[in-house]
């Protein structure tokens, strides 16, 4: 009896692992292809085999040295700067908004929470034309600060997860601090924030990634100002009909490099990250 | 209490939804607003006056500053040409020109989004003409310039820049189309004359023939070869066609299916990028690809690369030239420019014979100017002469509805479905359906 139980369990394990392994391979194969072929020396856009015959660093070298047509290093730096600033601003606002909603009790708090939730459901690019004209009125179009504003101004709406996390921190701590004479502001900086590392890390990561992935806002805001492009828009340029044949391998290399800053940040913070996602989900 | 709260929440949500949508509506009002302030047909040059100044006095009030868009690959030459223009115009005024890289494919989108931030003079592909004219973003070409342009450029390129009876842009190139690319070790120059011989030569060496039948831009040749032509849009934006002979178009569709079907083992219906990739890997003998890949094909095959106008196909015992869709690059003048006369002068200069020859020499772009097209640099270049020869039997890509491409793609894919051969009725039916879907 036990034996057959063990056996059936083993069989089901094998089946499950095989399925998972297949799914894993399917999921990761485009990434592996991307990395492999970014080092490919021969061929044009595609080759009819998976493993390149010759490997080279030439594609990466060209990406950073041959900047006459596509100034990738500059676009990379632009994206990095925008990502850093919008990451700092969004993280601060998200934390502050969440703290207010979690700890303070004020009139129409619920209403604001609801408004925030509803607004958060609209994708940002829905208002992009309006955004463009607002930025134009402020004389900010085609500038990097405009991007920072776009990415971080609405960040406060994403309070839901961190508010959930703050709710799990016992209010007794706040009360003890209040008795000791701490103000709300001091409680936020000195009690709540040091205890919320996981959720801070989570917020930092999500807001840092956004500028690397966004395409549509950059496209409309930057117009013809190529010096201020970000990598997403720049890389898309490389796949234009006229350039695709000549620049495709550089495009692959560029796509791989985008992953580097994000990966570094992620590796540095991953221990907190896992804790952060689960911690926020305990109590919504 | 609770009810009021709920009501407030719903009302607020509704308001937000409305404001969010009003953002979308806002584009319409703003773009039409800007269009109405700048009349689209505001012509510029003063005719018959004794004014010799090509800038019509615009140089009198300080420096004229212009912004010009051109594709990345053409930057260096464009800068040189602008510098030459500035030099020429010195006696009439000081001009500053900022040359900004901006691909032709995207120009219309950027201009219609915000004309005041766009370039004064910009290059674009002729399929964007309708959009730019109807949004009022192009300055109409005045009669004097129109006469010069019509006299100097090929008829089809002028047609591609014409909307209604008026000319709205300056023809820059006559090469935005596709021709036959082949590997001379597989297909001889003589074979490349007819589609039958080309396919047979490919099959002999077991090499592929690539064509993108799943893309309306290429697939339309199946129907165009039978005499179908696009003929502008009517007032409601519905695609119009010429008075074509349905029986002939049906015969053309059947001839293509029949011929390609005989070579179904080497015929590849795939993206045009497979042509040059296939040259590199040695799997492709010939294929149909666009002029923008001339340089990569030359890099891939060196001296063995061959270019020819699209071959003929035997329809009813008659060798019929394949008719394709032909695009032109145009230069337009932004209707909201501060310096219309200078912009027009610059556009005229950039599309002149001199500049077109320079482009042919340095960028290998096929000219639309008739004199430039007869220069050695063009006639001695196999690729350029192939594409210019092709323009003789082609349909200009202008006045083409957005709805044209998908039904044509479906038709193209149906033609190369060799397992299900056409009967005369089924070919006629799919043709009728395609036309109805394009018009619908």
Present the secondary structure layout.
The complex is a heterodimer of chains A (284) and B (440).
Chain A: H1 2-38, H2 58-65, H3 72-103, H4 109-121, H5 128-137, H6 144-153, H7 160-168, H8 171-179, H9 184-195, H10 197-213, H11 216-222, H12 231-238, H13 241-282
Chain B: H1 2-37, E1 64-70, H2 75-88, E2 95-101, H3 107-113, E3 121-125, H4 129-134, H5 143-152, H6 155-160, E4 162-163, E5 166-167, E6 170-176, E7 178-183, H7 195-204, E8 208-211, H8 216-224, E9 230-233, E10 239-241, H9 246-262, E11 267-269, H10 273-281, E12 284-290, H11 294-301, E13 305-308, E14 312-315, E15 318-321, E16 324-333, H12 340-350, H13 353-363, H14 370-373, H15 376-379, H16 382-391, E17 394-396, H17 405-415, H18 424-439
Helix pairs in contact in B: 8-17, 9-18, 10-11, 17-18
Largest interface: A-B, 40 and 42 residues
Q: State the helical fraction of chain B.
A: 40-55%
- The SS-based structural class of chain A is mainly alpha
> Could you state the CATH homologous superfamily of the largest domain in chain B?
Periplasmic binding protein-like II
Low-confidence stretches of chain A: none
In DSSP terms (H or I, runs of 4 or more residues), the helix count of chain A works out at: 13
Given this structure, which CATH class of the largest domain in chain A is correct?
Answer: Mainly Alpha
Shape of chain A: flat
Q: Can you tell me about this structure?
A:
The complex is a heterodimer of chains A (284) and B (440). Chain A has 284 residues and is mainly alpha-helical. Chain A folds into two domains: 2-58; 66-282, MetI-like fold. Helix content of chain A is 75%, strand content 0%. Chain A is built from 13 helices and no strands. Chain A has helices at residues 2-38, 58-65, 72-103, 109-121, 128-137, 144-153, 160-168, 171-179, 184-195, 197-213, 216-222, 231-238, 241-282. Chain A is flat. The mean pLDDT of chain A is 88. In chain B, the strands form five sheets. In chain B, strands 1, 2, 3, 6, 16 and 17 form a six-stranded mixed β-sheet that branches. Chain B has a five-stranded mixed β-sheet with strand order 11-8-12-7-13, with helices on both faces. Chain B has helices spanning 2-37, 75-88, 107-113, 129-134, 143-152, 155-160, 195-204, 216-224, 246-262, 273-281, 294-301, 340-350, 353-363, 370-373, 376-379, 382-391, 405-415, 424-439, and strands at 64-70, 95-101, 121-125, 162-163, 166-167, 170-176, 178-183, 208-211, 230-233, 239-241, 267-269, 284-290, 305-308, 312-315, 318-321, 324-333, 394-396. Chain B is α/β, with parallel strands linked by helices. In chain B, a hairpin with a 5-residue loop joins strand 9 (230-233) and strand 10. At the A-B interface, helix 4, helix 5 and helix 13 of A face helix 1, helix 10 and helix 11 of B.
